Amino acid sequence: MGEAGSGMRQAVPAELSSFIGRERELAALASMLSAERLVTLTGPAGIGKTRLAVRTVRTLTARSGLDAVWVDLAALPERHWAEGEGELGARLAGRRALLVLDGCEQLGETGPELVAELLRRLPELRILATSQRRLCLAGEAVLAVPPLAVPSGEAAPDPAERFPVAGIEGYAAVRLFEERARGADPFFELTERNAAAVGALCRALDGIPGALELAAGRAHQYAPAQALRRLGSDPLAFLAGGAGRGTRVDAERSHRLAPPAERLLWERLSVFAGSFDRAAVAEVCGFGALTPDTAVEALQRLAPALLADAGPGRYRLPLSVRAYAGRLLAHGPAGDGPATSRRHHERCRVLAERAARLWRAGAQREARALAVRELPELRAAMNPLSASGPGAALEIAVSLWFLWSACGMVAEGRRHLERALALHPAPRPARALWLAAWLVASFGEADGADPLLVEAWTAAVQEGEDTCLAYLAHVRGTIALWEDRYEEAAAEYLEGLELLPADPDPDADFGPGREALAAAHTMAVAHTDPASVPVEDGPPDAPADLWARAWVSYAHALVQRREGRPALARTELLRALRTQIALDDRLGQAFSVELLAELEADQGRYAEAARLLGAVSRTRPPAASAPRAQRVVRARLTPEAFRTSYASGARTPLRELLPDLAA
Fold first, then answer.
1. Has residue 87 got a pLDDT over 80?
2. Rounded distance between C-alpha atoms, residue 237 and residue 74, angstroms
3. Domain spanning 3-144 has what CATH number?
4. What are the residue ranges spanned by the domains of the chain?
5. Which of 203, 226, 470, 527 has its CA 20 to 30 A from that of 274?
6. What are the distances in angstroms from CA 610 to CA 578, 593, 601, 643?
7. Per-residue three-class SS string for 71-119
8. What is the pTM of this model?
9. SS3 for 384?
């Protein structure tokens, strides 16, 4: 077996591009190689195992004159695998060397046998293996190669928005994308216009260097936002060339060499759009040829080939692998794909209901955390074009009412509801129509909410949905509140409280609940009859509902300001803001911060008031009228001074503007 055709070479491969990130992994790997005879780098295809091995071995060779032999197993024809151990043994006999076996997963079950035999025959030999799974040999030291750090969703929210470059440029995945994109297109720059899209693209590609380099290599063809859209519509086609082709070939070969149970699990895992744990795998994938126990056992064997960066005990399929496995599932045995999808959808329905119950029980931080963690799965389940249909999609969307209305995701909730309602046959369900109307009203768009309110009222009467009728009154009150019609708002909120059943049917346990409606009524009354709102000692019966309590604090602050007690009003607003920030209630933040701005303006601190207004400029519904404080501040500051302070606030996180929030 000659060197040219065998995939064996004496020299370590050259580095053809710059090395970005991996400082911790480089140090850890060098330390492990100095102490262990067998070190295995694990991780999914494209994660950078080979690049890390090349950089480490070249560095060690340069420093110590290390004798290194490199074997590219991916280039080794399968018919020569049996000969590999004998040839390596002859070549390395009597040498104190480091052998790098790159791509051990390509050898399948023969890989561990080959490595064990080499270590037994050659006591002076050290081996560095790269593999999508550990070799499971005695004395093996394993270093799992993680994805490159990517911006969080909060760091770069909407790909269409302008976003400060400083918010993402320090992340290793962004630095890699930027440098490789500039190599493909010398005119490429990371700017405020494309920073959010670059951050979203890095997240969509899981921080996997191979996939990032492919996307960056197409910078001359697609802007980041275009690449993101193409990736979302057909990831396998987008990753069909260059580094993406290599990743796909690795996936195909690894899948073919895996035992039957692992192949089947791999295919079924493709229904997960985000991360999953053992319980989810047992529940969704453990049926038919795979029992729940065998599914979990197969997961443990596959784990190094997955992404384990989503929290302790959670895993994720890389996008390219998921797309490939998804096609296999779609064209696999009849019924397997639909059955897996049905089980996945049922799990999502139960999860959404569990999150809604947590919210109504007062565990609102836990409810939000559960929904956000499972959001990729829930989004997939809310696709009305799936086999489950628009009715099932609406059921989940309504259970997640709190995520859309109270946790800063109004625009996304509207998209899910409007898409599913458009495909739902008449008559459309009252609950979904109520929620759609509420989310439209949250944008201050009264005209858009009116047709939905009429249809929802008719449907609620026909369905006997008294709870829904109560919540429709709440929506009408919200619209009146936006339009400064406070007496009408108070009357509507009171009607909602009267219509809401005292003992609601547990099966109808949806929507904001009595405490939230009472808080809304208190807020309206704070404008019309502040003397009737007791604020001296705080609310006598503070709601267990944290979200409702924040709105009560806002209402009390309104009263305290009118009564000339700004310090107490500020205390109430900071109390409200702590909850609103924890829940990401952006509408609540806008209300509270705008009232804080009024307090600052009352004290003559107009520049500080303008900064506060700028801080919530993106969270205020676009159809709402300008806040009262803005009119006052504009009259007191020069246009230039107002713009400067307002822009400063827009660039500054609320916690930095209000240090008291940390108290």
1. no
2. 23
3. 3.40.50.300
4. 3-144, 245-332, 427-528, 549-663
5. 226
6. 21, 11, 9, 8
7. EEHHHCCHHHHHHHHHHHHHHHCCCCCEEEEECHHHHCCHHHHHHHHHH
8. 0.81
9. coil
